[in-house]
Amino acid sequence: MLPRLRWLLALALTAPTQAAWAAAPAAPAAAAERFDTVVVDAGHGGDDHGAKGPRGLLEKDLVLDVARRLAKRLAAQDLAVVMTRAADRFVPLDERTRIANEAGADLFVSIHANASALNRVRGIETFFASLEATDESARALARRENLAFGEAAARAGEIDPVRAILGDLLATEHLADAQEFARMTQRRLATGETSRSRGVKQAPFVVLMGVQMPAVLVEIGFLTNALEESRLAREPERERLAGGIADAVAAFKRRQDARLGVADAGKPSTQ
Fold first, then answer.
1. Is the confidence at residue 17, as pLDDT, over 70?
2. Candidates 3.90.1010.10, 1.10.630.10, 3.30.420.270, 3.40.630.40; correct CATH number of 33-260?
């Protein structure tokens, strides 16, 4: 799909107004012929605290710390890393997608922590974008995360005929890659020894719909579960999570470079 068409489809999902269409910028430059850039998106920030644990751990602080650890590991892999936020500040939806798209990134990883009214619920979930949610809990989670960007963003995650057509056109290009990376990430994070797997799922997360690259959203645990909050508060668990995502990125990079015929791609890793 042409870059200009991808940009217009993304715009329709995030800001479908006549003024926005008129103000469309020039198409982004073509991506480099190798996997070399990752966008790390720490959810929430600033006045938007996100989920809160019974002992007071805030999602915005937790995910920023994990995002920084991940960025450091990716840089050690000689990858260019772009963070949508590197400090405790709120970043609007359009700025997050703009940062990712202008970077011409090869992958977008959004890091979040979950919450539930049932304090026994725990585990890790990895999502890719779809207008159809896996189940009602996935749809409710997407709506809650979308609301962090305001009512307009929450409405953008709801299905209507026009958005369904545009969303299908936009998602098809990167859907298989996003699903593949989601599986690789989930397998490395939810080992069963330290954390329960809640599976790979799909839901209408607008932060994933607006980017022009494979994109996933990782819910690294439930802060509303006291045991998970306690574990997520500790450095070893944060390092384990960052390391697991970094390992998934490295494996995904090898596969993408091999598909592009990059000479030094190496042997693809098993999932």
1. no
2. 3.40.630.40
